[in-house]
Write a structure and sequence with these properties.
Layout lengths: L5 H8 L1 E4 L4 E5 L2 E4 L5 H9 L10 E4 L19 H17 L2 E3 L9 H7 L8 E4 L13 E4 L2 H10 L1 E5 L2 E8 L8 H12 L7 E6 L1 H4 L3 H10 L7 E4 L3 H8 L7 H12 L11 E6 L6 E3 L7 E3 L13 H14 L14 E4 L1 H4 L2 H11 L9 E4 L4 H9 L2 H8 L2 E2 L20 E4 L14 E4 L2 H10 L6 H4 L16
Parallel strand pairs: 3-4, 3-6, 4-5, 6-7, 9-10, 9-12, 10-11, 15-16, 15-18, 16-17, 18-19
Antiparallel strand pairs: 1-2, 2-8, 13-14
Length: about 475
């Protein structure tokens, strides 16, 4: 009998009952809620006269609809009536059910997928669910995380379990070393581009290899966060010393013998040597360049030295239709080099790239330079804790002096559910995870890239290879590459 994968082990250790060959009743260690996927669930409980079974294993945040205006946290308000009602309903529901809430004026408020790990809530071996697709982030710490729907939120509140269809296993081995100017964001965009938006559909992805081993915990979160854009139902990285150090630094309860027992258990969480995967991919890290999306799906991407593809070269008519639509929406002619395309806006933040390491990477590129004339550049920390740390390290002051807007935490311009959004036709260099039509605002055009690449775009006013700003042999600071108009 073959060995078990890490995913198989996590599912098996949380299976309350097997319902049929494909489904199990899965126990949930932690359930996270936000203001827009929880109201109907609480209403459902109330209509049945039920209470939250285990309130101590729930956590909630206000993050998607909250404005990020740079006012003190204690004075943050939501002016939009519908959004304010959502936040008020979440607050009332959490109070009534005894659920911890990071509310609008909480100095530690932030994006759910940033707040939970930084407070030591996510630990290897857990099952963590949330009504948000990017819950795959937690696989970076060896936890099984995935998004759920509103009806499932209600089921978890009532029973702390979920009826779950077991996924198949897919492994991506990344060997070698990422080059200068290449980050985990570039790696994951490369992965999504290579295997396609449906390439991991129905599968739990496990990352391994020498390139993964050297990534920080926060870089691994970026990788697992965006793997859902390839259709993955989960993304996992086996716990190691990097994981243990990150979690223990944020979990004061894990001291002494309890801590040693936890460490021993976590380091044993890995796939067996003879475990079988339905699909396997191997990637050479050294061959990856900084990546940029050109179209309206995260898999429509290319290295920064690439050109917009010609839809007429697609293999079949359906692909040609999809590419024509993307090219038309994004407003770039086939054959246009992506490097040199002007941008109107730059957004740095989100649950993909709003952590302190991301802001440090931005600061390294920005130091001594200024945002280009005519570009509006925003930096939105992923949480109040990240914001405070960036201010203590001098990052906030550096970015403000360079011309970036330094905002309060929230999902912000990742999606058009608040007042940070693109105007029709505006083009944005963004560190977010999705570039769908209208994602950042009606008729807005989004190019996904790494924090360093977004910083470079802010400084030059156009998409540019960040390595030309970092390399000793590259252009002088503030030099402008030749402009390419779409």
């Amino acid at each position: 009998m073959p060995g078990m994968t890490l995913y198989d082990k996590l599912v098996a250790s949380h299976t309350v009952a097997r319902l049929d060959p494909e489904h199990v009743l899965l126990y949930v260690d932690l359930h996270i809620m936000n203001e827009y996927t929880s109201p109907q669930a609480f209403s459902g409980l109330a209509s049945r006269g039920r209470r939250t079974l285990r309130p101590g294993q729930q956590m909630a945040v206000v993050d998607h609809i909250i404005p990020t205006h740079p006012v003190p946290a204690a004075r943050r308000t939501i002016q939009d009536p519908a959004s304010a009602l959502q936040a008020a309903n979440l607050g009332r529901n959490c109070r009534e059910h005894g659920v911890t809430l990071f509310d609008t004026t909480d100095p530690l408020q932030g994006i759910e997928h940033v707040v939970a790990p930084e407070h030591g809530m996510i630990r290897p071996g857990m099952v963590v669910l949330c009504g948000d697709s990017h819950t795959t982030t937690y696989g970076a710490l060896g936890a099984l995380g995935f998004g759920i729907g509103t009806s499932e939120v209600e089921h978890i509140l009532a029973t702390q379990t979920l009826v779950y269809r077991v996924a198949r296993n897919l492994r991506i081995r990344v060997e070698g070393q990422l080059g200068q100017g290449v980050s985990a964001k570039d790696l994951v965009i490369h992965v999504v581009h290579r295997i396609g938006a449906q390439g991991a559909r129905g599968h739990a992805v496990e990352y391994c290899g020498t390139a993964i081993d050297v990534l920080s915990a926060e870089a691994r979160m970026t990788l697992c966060n965006m793997t859902v854009e390839a259709g993955a139902r989960a993304a996992l990285i086996a716990p190691d010393a990097v994981t243990v150090d990150y979690v223990c630094a944020r979990a004061p309860d894990l001291q002494g013998e309890a801590g040693e027992q936890a460490r021993a258990y976590w380091l044993g969480l890995r796939s067996d040597a003879d475990a079988r995967f339905a699909i396997e991919h191997r990637i050479d890290a050294a061959a990856i360049a900084p990546y940029v999306t050109w179209g309206t799906s995260p898999d429509q991407a290319m290295p920064v030295d690439g050109c917009v593809p010609d839809p007429e070269q697609a293999e079949d008519e359906l692909a040609r239709i999809a590419l024509r639509k993307a090219v038309d929406y994004i407003g770039l002619a086939p054959g246009t080099p992506i490097a040199g395309v002007p941008v109107d806006r730059v957004f740095i933040g989100s649950c993909t790239n709003g952590r302190i390491e991301d802001l440090r990477a931005v600061a390294e590129v920005v130091r001594g330079r200024k945002v280009a004339a005519g570009v509006r550049a925003m930096v939105v920390p992923g949480s109040g804790a990240v914001r405070r740390q960036a201010e203590e390290e001098g990052i906030a002051a550096l970015l403000s002096q360079a011309g970036f807007e330094w905002r309060q935490p929230g999902c912000s311009m990742c999606l058009a559910m608040n007042d940070d959004m693109l105007s029709p036709g505006e083009r944005c260099a963004s560190t977010t995870n999705r570039n769908f039509e209208g994602r950042q605002g009606r008729a807005g055009r989004t190019h996904l890239m790494s924090p360093a690449m977004a910083a470079a775009a802010a400084l030059t006013g156009r998409i540019v290879d960040v390595r030309t700003l970092q390399s000793p042999g590259g252009p002088a600071r503030g030099a402008q590459p030749e402009e390419v108009r779409p």
